[in-house]
Amino acid sequence: MALRTQISERQRRFGAELRRLREGAGLAVKDAGALVGMGGPQLSHIEAGRTGLDPDRLTVLLGAYGHMDETYAAALQQMGLSNGKGWWSPFKGFVMSSALDLAESESSAAALSSYETLLIPGLLQVSGYSETILSGDQKKVEFRRGRQQAISGDGAVPLHAVIHEAALRTQFGGPEVMREQLDYLVEVSELPHVTIQILPFRCTEYVSTDTPFMLVHGPHSELDTALMEHPGGSTFHGDPDSLTAFRSKFERLKSLALPELDATRSLRARTEHDSLGLIQHVRYTL
User: What are the start-end ranges of the E strands in 98-247?
Assistant: First the structure.
C-alpha cells in the first residue's frame, strides 16, 4: 500500500495515540511490530499517520500495551477505519486543510468547549458577521454555515462557549450586523445543549485570557483535542499534558465569566450582573 502524502489530523492523531501507548508500555517499535507480524519501519509509518492499521492488529497492540478500555478501543478503531469524507469534502481546495480537519473533528465530537477573545465563535456567527470576517468569500461563508450543523442539525452536540466582552463590542460589519449577531446569541442560548457565558472587561484575573482555543471532546477523554487557530492555519494538541492544561484553563474561565445566558429567567430572578444583561447593554449602545 502506498504511503500517504497528505495526512489528515484524524490520521495523524490515530498514529500518535499508538505511539503514545507503545512508549508508555516501554516497547521498542521493532518489538511491537513483531507482535502483529510487521517490521519496525512499517509500524513507524503507521504511527506517523502515513498508512493505516487493520482492526485485528489494533486489538492485539492495545492488549500488548495494556490498554483494554472498550470505549477507547472502539473509538480508536473508528478513527482508524473512517474514510474522512463528509459534508466538508467538496470544500477541499477552497479552505485550508486544517479547517477541513476541524470540521471532521466537530462532526464526531461528543461536546465542544470554546473560548474566544475578539471574535464571536464561528459556530455562533450569523451570515453578515461571517461575510465580514471572511472578506465576502462565499465558499468560506458556506463552509462556516456547514460547520454550524454540529450544534444545530441532527445529532447536535453540546456547546459551552465563553466569549470575551471585547468580541461583543468590536463592531465587525457595523451596528446593524452586530445587533443581529447579539440577538442571535440570545436566541441560540435557548437551545438546551448550548451554554454561553461572557467574560467581562472587569475581570481582574489573567488566565491566558488573550488566547482563543476550542476543546473538541471525543467519545473518550483520552481522545479529546485542543485547537488553537492562527492566520497560517490551526494547530491541534492531543497529548495528555496539553489537554490537562486546556481543560483546567477552560474551567477557570467559566468560573471567572458572568453567569450563563438565560433569556427565560425573569428580571427579578437574574443577578445584577449576568451575561444576558451585558449583551442587552451592549446592544442598546449600538
Answer: 111-116, 159-164, 194-199, 213-217, 225-230, 233-237
Domain boundaries, the chain: 9-81, 89-285
> What are the angstrom distances between the C-alpha of 283 and each of 13, 116, 160, 164, 183?
42, 19, 22, 15, 8
E strand or H helix at 97, and its extent? helix 97-107
Q: CA 227, CA 98: separation in Å to the nearest integer?
A: 10
Instruction: State the Cα–Cα distance between residues 140 and 103, nearest whole angstrom.
Output: 12
pLDDT, tens digit, 9 for 90 and up, residues 17-70: 999 999 999 999 999 999 999 999 999 999 999 999 999 999 999 999 998 899
Assigned CATH for 89-285: 3.30.870
Q: Which of 147, 154, 158 is nearest to 192 (CA)?
A: 158
Distance CA 241, CA 195 (A): 26
**In sequence order, what E strands does 46-151 have?**
111-116
Per-residue pLDDT reduced to its tens digit, 240-284: 999 999 999 999 999 999 999 987 765 545 555 899 999 999 999
Give, for 184, the enclosing helix (H) or strand (E). Answer: helix 175-188
Q: What is the pTM of this model?
A: 0.93
Q: Which CATH class is domain 9-81?
A: mainly alpha
| Residue 161 CB contacts under 8 Å (≥ 6 apart), including other chains | 113, 114, 115, 116, 121, 123, 124, 194, 195, 196, 197
Q: Angle at Cα 207 formed by Cα 204 and Cα 208, nearest 5°?
A: 120
Residue 36 φ/ψ, nearest 5 degrees: -120, 20
